[in-house]
């Protein structure tokens, strides 16, 4: 007989800590998008143009989306210990639909500050919403079958890497939503499918299965051993599969002019959509992090965890603040006008922004300012949620 699950789950501080850490790191990437001089000229992972510091400034942020979506699945499992399957399924359906609506309206506006909505982005929050809608159906299946679905989607989707549907057609758009990052135009609008959903659905399904490790079915010592095994195995698989250089990522690594750049080529994995190697490379160390942080309690962990307790609130605020600061910086410190940041072209390809930008040192300074400035608001909102649990709408933000 299996031990009973804990029906009164408390927040798991190591999960809040990990989520908070990746939320803080995420802001670095978005500050770089809006402030770095090279952001509008070349890919920071382009080994022919980047520097090691710029490469790692971008590369470290690869951990954010996989951890965010994986832990959303874990949180869904833990929420399900206090709800019936029917209640959880309905909650996931409603929250998923709400996140998609939020992505296509408020979040798109925050990215562009353009009331005409000339740019429409299908990026991380839309993917989170779609994955929740699929999970709403998956939870009615046996856990072993959910695990199998997650493994197949994550490990097998790279078989589709050579499948493309060209053109600015509805069929191409549909395939892009599933597995092929592309740009489209529709009635004068620029449409970016940045996060094809197929592997992300698998990541959330795996996160849901992972949640069982944080119930009373496992004591802390058992959990740590399993986390070390899972995380260590993922890292080892990444190294082995990447070294073989045959499967797991659409772009093989290659010898570079120096050992350092060869290493950078080795760890440069595809994010759009996330390859098997990308997911192993990011979730493996993240699970090891959980194994070693369950008992950490100090002022630093409490500070970081605040962002992990209110991730959607922080996400919305940080995009607004970073964008607003970019407008001020353009008007005050460059030859550009502040309204250069009302974007009618996609952020990463805006011709008007070529020649704008600052050094990486400025990027890191603005990142620090943004994170610290948002802490009081995040702490206030966390307390508000704790003190107003009767307000169900708070679970959607």
From TrEMBL:
Heparan-alpha-glucosaminide N-acetyltransferase catalytic domain boundaries: 11-222
Organism in which the protein naturally occurs: Lacibacter sediminis
Pfam family, one: HGSNAT_cat
Membrane-spanning segments: 59-80, 92-113, 119-138, 192-214, 226-244, 275-292, 313-335, 355-378
Highest taxon of the lineage: Bacteria
Keywords noted in UniProt: Membrane, Transmembrane, Transmembrane helix
InterPro entries per UniProt: HGSNAT_cat
Keyword Transmembrane: yes
The protein's name in its UniProt record: DUF1624 domain-containing protein
